[in-house]
Design a protein that fits this description.
alpha+beta, four-stranded antiparallel beta sheet, 4 helices, 7 strands, 25% helix, elongated
Length: 190
């Protein structure tokens, strides 16, 4: 006769709990122009996203942003672009493990004038005083969650700005791939 220790039978099945997504926290949020590849939950419930946008001529790069605090990055700790989803996940996980931010409301999609101002601010931030600077779509990765616009919309807006302000931004066909190459002209010397 075999004696089984700690054995008991259950008459009622244990209820299975499936957590329901909370879209208001960002658990299912899919803003236009952004491809969310991974989500992490911070200590107090804020969602940390790993995301990308359309692959540009330089390949796919990723960004990480917390929806509860101001943390955003498109580079790793050595100032290189985040070139793999795994590298983005490691940065997001490290942030989520120490972030105590509560979830905030998701940013509303801005009107076109506000989105245009976001593009202008980014171009101004990328502008150098000593040399002309090529504009890559990855420059807009940190702004994508606020912009909530497609790559095509951003390119059309940059083309419009190049037409309106040719002393600040130029547009010309790329010589090495299809599409347009945008260049921010250096600040004038005084």
């Amino acid at each position: 006769m075999a004696l089984t220790l700690f054995s008991r039978t259950r008459n009622t099945p244990e209820p299975k709990h499936t957590p329901q997504p909370q879209p208001e926290r960002g658990e299912t949020w899919k803003p236009e122009g952004v491809i969310v590849t991974q989500r992490f939950i911070g200590l107090a419930g804020a969602i940390v996203l790993v995301y990308t946008a359309d692959a540009g001529v330089n390949g796919t790069t990723y960004a990480v942003a917390c929806l509860g605090c101001p943390f955003r990055t498109r580079t790793n700790n050595r100032d290189y672009s985040i070139s793999t989803e795994q590298a983005g996940a490691e940065i997001a996980n490290a942030h989520a493990a120490q972030c105590r931010a509560l979830p905030r409301d998701l940013p509303a999609r801005p009107d076109d004038d506000t989105a245009r101002e976001i593009v202008r601010r980014r171009l101004n931030a990328e502008r150098q005083s000593d040399y002309d600077t090529l504009v890559y779509l990855t420059s807009f990765h940190l702004d994508r969650l606020a912009l909530q616009r497609s790559t095509e919309w951003i390119e059309e807006e940059m083309q419009r700005l190049a037409d309106e302000q040719p002393d600040s931004l130029t547009a010309q066909p790329r010589s090495y791939a299809p599409g347009t190459e945008f260049t921010i002209l250096r600040r004038p010397q005084r």
